[in-house]
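Why DUF4136 domain-containing protein? Reviewers of the renewal asked for a concrete example.
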Amino acid sequence: MAVILVGCSSPSTPQITPIDSELNHRLLTGEGLDTRLFSTSQTVQYYEVAHLDALAPEAAQTALDRFIRRQYRRADLTRLREFTVLFYHPTFLVDYRAEAYEAARDTEVGFLTEHHDALAAQVRLVELPGPGQRWRRSRVLYHAQAVQRSVTDTVHTDQLLHR
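Here is what the prediction returned.
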């Protein structure tokens, strides 16, 4: 009798994919959006994130910060006063795309209300008044629908994005 053991190891970095890359692009740039229905000064971006729970909360937050730093440019924030990035756990047989457009249009922060139980993390930037590009950054990690880690700080654009 042969026994085969298969080990599962969690990746050291989460796997992040856009829920709808075309919608994310349109929300970020405003291209093709009706400005009567969508804000021109605040936007939201949607991603699925796998294996985030395999990391310690601090490491998970660092991984998400790194992702945002690589994914976005300073120019992306130029026209914005608020910028939110939402990360959802992948869920079998659920297509978040069907709800993302309506959520971005109809809800203040863009949460997928039908899938609040799958929310893994959010990063929200709100521009602060005054000289320089300073932002209040709120980062929240969720575990089993409860806040696992919540950190708010003030950062400059060059601390958020490198390019």
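Helices lie at 21-29, 57-71, 74-77, 97-106, 157-160. This is the kind of structural detail the renewal will allow us to pursue systematically.
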